[in-house]
Automatic annotation (TrEMBL):
The lineage of its organism: Bacteria, Pseudomonadati, Planctomycetota, Candidatus Brocadiia, Candidatus Brocadiales. One of its GO terms (molecular function) is methyltransferase activity. Keywords: Methyltransferase, Transferase. This is DNA methylase N-4/N-6 domain protein. One of its GO terms (biological process) is methylation.
Length: 228
């Protein structure tokens, strides 16, 4: 989304407002930024949407380095809600190159996963994630094998994400390591490490799993699913 102007706003959970170049029914858009060292929370989203509605905005964009999974489930019948991930590079300040390709904000959807059940065990298949390209304005689907890393919490309690399984699908990133290890590498185990399919696991006490995906820019997004 490109803005004609973006003006700082003080007070509350709305930090800026602007007018989009391509309106598409959106005259005024609010922007809310998350903390530098933490996720955008459910409270921030709920309060931000409430403030945006009372102030007459058509939409609100929440920008953050990470998002609580439940925060992305908050909806409003009259306010459009968008989530934009900020690249961690922005924290290094003046060390960044100011080129047209240096996009610090990336909008992408929740991971596309499939859960398979075999008797009393489950497997998760990572199919990919939808990513918005700010240079072209197009949304494309990134396949699972192009993801930098993905993790599963097989017993997610909605408070803290604990890694139960970890995978790094981009096999090209491991080429140097494979050459360095040479004959000492176990190809079968290495293939499991780069898989987009999890190892079998049993349902935990919470009956809930969370899958966190990290792209090559360091952005992360998470999806939560209930299981039997």
């Amino acid at each position: 989304m490109k803005f004609e102007n973006l003006i700082p706003v003080s007070g509350g959970f709305i930090h800026a407002e602007g007018e989009p170049v391509d309106k598409n029914g959106l005259e005024r858009v609010a922007v809310s930024f998350g903390p530098p060292h933490g996720p955008v929370t459910v409270r921030q989203v709920e309060d931000g949407i409430h403030d945006a509605y009372l102030s007459g905005y058509d939409a609100i964009i929440f920008c953050g380095f990470a998002f609580d999974a439940a925060a992305q489930d908050v909806k409003h019948p009259k306010i459009k809600v968008f989530y934009s991930h900020i690249r961690p590079d922005v924290l290094v300040g003046d060390l960044l190159k100011t080129t047209s390709a240096s996009q610090l904000f990336t909008v992408f959807g929740e991971p596309d996963i499939e859960i398979k059940r075999k008797k009393n065990e489950y497997e998760v298949i990572l199919k990919g994630v939808d990513i918005y390209d700010p240079l072209t304005g197009e949304v494309y689907s990134g396949s699972g094998d192009r993801i930098a890393a993905w993790f599963i919490d097989t017993d997610y309690d909605k408070r803290s994400f604990c890694v139960s399984q970890a995978f790094f699908p981009d096999s090209k990133a491991w080429d140097k390591l494979k050459r360095a290890l040479k004959a000492s590498i176990d190809e079968d185990k290495f293939e499991l490490l780069t898989s987009t399919r999890s190892l079998p696991f049993k349902s935990g006490k919470e009956k809930r799993i969370a899958v966190k995906v990290i792209d090559h820019r360091g952005n992360e997004v998470m999806v939560v699913r209930e299981i039997g």
